[in-house]
Design brief:
Blueprint: H1 3-25, E1 30-34, H2 40-44, E2 53-56, H3 59-65, E3 74-77, H4 86-89, E4 95-99, H5 102-114, E5 119-125, H6 141-149, E6 154-161, H7 169-189, E7 194-200, H8 207-212, E8 217-220, H9 222-225
Parallel strand pairs: 1-2, 1-8, 2-3, 3-4, 4-5, 5-6, 6-7
Amino acid sequence: MMDEELHARVDAIRERLERASLERWGRVPQIIAVSKTVPAQRVNAVLGEGIVRLGENRVQELLEKKPHLDASFQIDLIGRLQNNKVKAIINQVHMIQSVDRESLAQEIDRRAQQHGLRMPVLIQVNIGREAQKGGVDPDGLNELVRYAAALPGLDVRGLMAVMPDLKDEDQLRPYFAQMRRLFDNLQQEAIDGVTMEELSMGMSGDYELAAAEGATVVRIGSAIFGRRETPASAQ
């Protein structure tokens, strides 16, 4: 993809985010470029567009790609994380966005302390209560936040969600609005060890709606990089 095309795509995304969020929220969400299956050379080009955060879904791909990525990127793990993979990535990422259970929080804490780290994390919420998706049930969110906040190796920064796959904005909007209410409620509780500053929601197909409903971070892949390649190693 030519730099001009990349520039045009990112510019268009920023304009839409600004229209959706600036008047209501007084700010524009930060863009995380989701780089799953995108070669490092293409990923590095987004630095020229002022995008400094990447989201990677798979541990193996992240580890293979990272040596070829510009060192100034902040890499967030945004995919589901198995407990036994924490050791491999604990000192390779800036943030883990997909903490959804106590056992995972406990393992991140253990590995982070081994490295002298306090790992920034987001608590993933299964806002649609979908069996096939990761995330804590909204009813168990407060308990998991408090559990994670008490672990010295974790720095709880906010919430993350993957929305139900709905095309109708009127059906989708309430899920974004509910995430914002959960976020605001936890902010007001002012739990020790919880900053609650980041609400990560919205992807290529729904980022404008996410921005309108109060996302502080959006995770955008195909709208930046185009149709994904799917190498055998990523299948």
